[in-house]
Amino acid sequence: MEFIVFCILAAVALVGAILTVSCASAVRSAMSLILCLFAVAGLFVLLKAHFIAAMQVLVYAGAIMVLFVFVVMLLNLSPERFGRARVTVLGVVSGLAVLLVAGKLARTIVMVPPDASPAVPGQPLGPDFGSVSTVGQLLFKQFLLPFELTSVLLLVAVVAAIVIARQRFSREGQQP
Amino acid sequence: MTAGLYHYILLSFLLFSVGLLGVLIRRNAVILLMSVELMLNACNLALVAYSRFRGDEAGQVMSFFVMALAAAEAAVGLAIVIALFRHFKTLDVDRMTTLKG
What we know:
Chain A is mainly α. Helices cover 74% and strands 0% of the residues of chain A. The termini of chain A are far apart. Chain A contains 6 helices and no strands. By secondary structure, chain B is mostly helical. Chain B has a single domain, classed as Orthogonal Bundle (Helix Hairpins). Chain B is built from 3 helices and no strands. In chain B, helix 1 runs antiparallel to helix 2 and helix 2 (29-54) packs antiparallel against helix 3. Classes of the chains: A mainly alpha, B mainly alpha. Chains A and B meet through helix 1, helix 2, helix 3, helix 4 and helix 5 of A and helix 1, helix 2 and helix 3 of B.
C-alpha cells in the first residue's frame, strides 16, 4: 500500500518537474513546480517528516511560489517571446554535462542496497519521530547557532532584494 | 514490497537531473530560477530520506535550513531578475551579454 502511494507521488513529482522545465509559458512552469512541490510534501509525510512536510507546503508552495508568480505577472511576459528550449551546440554540450553528473550520482545510488532496511538495526523509530517537538528540540539546542545565522541571512537577503529592485527609482529621484 | 532508501534516492537523483537540465537549456531567467528551486528540493528529499532510514532527525533540520536558503535565494534572484528586466527589456539570458553598468 505504502509502495503504491510512493509510486503515485513519485510519478506526479517527476511529471511536474519535467513540465516545469519544458513549458514555454512561465506561469505554466510555476504551476507545474507547485504540483511537484506538493507531491514531494506527500513524500515527506511518507518519510514521517511531518514538520518538514508542513514547512514545504507553507514556505515553498506558499511563499516562494507566490513570489515567483507575482514576479511573472508583474513583468507581464508573453510566452511567444521565448521559444521552447532550442536545440543548439550549447544544448547538446549541456545534455552531455548532465549525463556526466548523472553518471557520477548513479554510482552513489548503486552503493545503496535496494533492500535497505527501514531503520538502522537496534534503532527502532520512536513514535514521535519527525514531530514538531522533537525537531524543534534539536533546532533550538544542537543547531541553535545555525538557526540564528539563518535569520541573519534572511534579513540580509530581504535588505539586498529591496536595494536591488529599487535601484532605478532612487536614481531617477536624484535627477530632478 | 515497500519503498526503501534506494527508491527515494533514485527519485531525488532524477528530480535533480531534470532541474540541472532546465538550468542548462532554458533561456528564460525566471524559469532558470525555478529549476534551481527544483534542484534544492531534490536535495531536501535526499536529506529527509537519509534522516528517516538512519533514524536521526538531524537531516530534517538540515532540510529546514535548505528551505530558508531557498527563500533567501528566491528573494535576491527575483530582485535581480526585475533589475535586469528594467535594464535589458528582456528576460532572455542569451541577450544579456554585458555585465557593465
